[in-house]
Amino acid sequence: MFNAMDTGDLLVALADVLRDAGRIDRPLSGFERSQLLSASSIARNLAAEERGTAATLQAANDAVAAAVAAAAAEIHPAPFRQARDGRELGEQLGALLEGLRRDERTEAQRLRTRLQGVLRRLADDEVAALAAGAGR
Amino acid sequence: MTSAPAGATPIDERLAASALAVMREAGAVGADATATTLRQLHGGWSRHSYVLDVADPERGQLACIVRVRPAGAVLDTDLVQEYRTFAALQDLPVPTPAVFGLHADGDTPFGGPFFVMSRLEGESPNVWNARERRVLEEDWAAGRRIADDLARHLATIHGLTGEAAEAIVPARSFAQTVEHWRGVWEEQRLVRDPIVDEAFHWVASRTPDPVRPRLVHGDYRIGNCLVDRGRLSGILDWELAHVGDPRFDLGYLALPYSSGKLFAPGSELLGGVADRDWFLARYADLTGDEVDLEVVRTFSVIAALMLTAITATGIRVFRDGGSTDVRMLWSRFIMPGLRQDMADLMGWR
């Protein structure tokens, strides 16, 4: 979810690998073959990631919004703004948790624990989506 | 200069000449030595490796590996230090390659500094391959020879303390280890990751009771070893070695990643080779050190953070055009599993 390089970046990289392989007019070396296999694995994983991202992001957005809304107003008065992608979610949650780490009040630590649970489920969902793709 | 057998992959003359020149200068081969094989291996992230076979009328056949630090490496580690580490390890009763000369200058036909070392017999088990995991599990069930070798060699490595170890590699305290990898992560990351942020905070709050600093391999897992006829025949990949808390190596081994987890669980055995309780008890017997499972847990999270930081480095190097090695981009898919492991190890429910 909190991934560097988006789908477009990955597709461009895959296109480059395929182009370079297509220009080789001799038997591939072991290294070149491993490049192609890695590219194939990237494509498969990316497809699995794409299939799971929308649901995972929505579930995380909903869970964070509910946790923040349930916390006392003095802990986090502003409502959580729905993130449009993983990068935005990472920025928002990162900033929120950074503030909570400095706040020793019970309510703050309760919210932090709840957000950690959200992150745990998000990590589980993301891995499950990738595992499902690997098994196809 | 070179003499590839008929039908073999042609040898790159420039590469062969460069490697042979280094070996001659180091006195490892004579003036008439020739290369009979030179090809790049497909493994290696922070280093590129080449198989090199040399025929020397004075010394006979030499089976070698050329280890290169490419321009776009995922680890900003010093090849000269790695060479010196291998040289120093010759005195230790652990199976490591002999070294045959170093070219420390980055301007080489290999695309970076390199050294030549002996090629040991054996293969590196791939714990992410189910079939190879089964071979390791069969060894555990049948005689535990690989598991025992892994424990014994780790105890030997950790037996090197103080000045003797610091003469080889730099010392790093617990706090320095955490700060080192936090620094790498902050410098290399392209996105903010709240799980990683929390994990750095978590490990920094769990400074363990100090122990006498030892030589730490830093990347100790079965995939960085060679296995030949059911025994550990080589311990490789020392570029993360340092002097510090030896429990780092235990935490790294205990990480699910080291047992073959990517998306699906890997082996139930620690590091893919041994029952966890057995291994830690065997290690404790060999070293005389009690193993605190909570400290191992802390170091498992640090190990996951280290892998995360290294992966982030590879992705940045690729994005910035420092390397076209697409495996660096592939490593992006290692991160979700590591995040899950960190969340699990920190007890998030």
Describe this structure in words.
- The complex is a heterodimer of chains A (136) and B (349).
- Chain A contains four helices and no strands.
- With 136 residues, chain A is mostly helical.
- Chain A has one domain (7-134).
- Chain A is elongated.
- The model of chain A has no long low-confidence stretch (mean pLDDT 92).
- Chain B has 349 residues and is of the alpha+beta class.
- Chain B has helices spanning 13-25, 79-89, 130-142, 145-158, 162-166, 174-188, 194-204, 247-254, 276-287, 293-319, 327-330, 335-345, and strands at 34-40, 48-56, 60-68, 99-103, 114-118, 214-216, 225-228, 231-235, 242-244.
- A five-stranded antiparallel beta sheet of chain B has the order 1-2-3-5-4, with helices on both faces.
- Chain B is globular.
- Chain B starts with 12 loop residues before the first helix and ends with a helix.
- The interface between A and B is large, with 48 and 43 residues.
Write a brief structural summary.
The complex is a heterodimer of chains A (136) and B (349). Chain A has 136 residues and is mainly alpha-helical.
List keywords for this structure.
heterodimer; A: 136 residues; 4 helices; B: 349 residues; alpha+beta; Phosphorylase Kinase, domain 1; Aminoglycoside 3'-phosphotransferase, Chain: A, domain 2; 5-stranded antiparallel β-sheet; two-stranded antiparallel sheet; globular
Sequence-ordered SSE layout with sheet pairings:
The complex is a heterodimer of chains A (136) and B (349).
Chain A: H1 7-22, H2 30-70, H3 86-101, H4 106-134
Helix pairs in contact in A: 1-2, 2-4, 3-4
Chain B: H1 13-25, E1 34-40, E2 48-56, E3 60-68, H2 79-89, E4 99-103, E5 114-118, H3 130-142, H4 145-158, H5 162-166, H6 174-188, H7 194-204, E6 214-216, E7 225-228, E8 231-235, E9 242-244, H8 247-254, H9 276-287, H10 293-319, H11 327-330, H12 335-345
Antiparallel strand pairs in B: 1-2, 2-3, 3-5, 4-5, 6-9, 7-8
Helix pairs in contact in B: 4-9, 6-10, 7-10, 8-10, 10-12
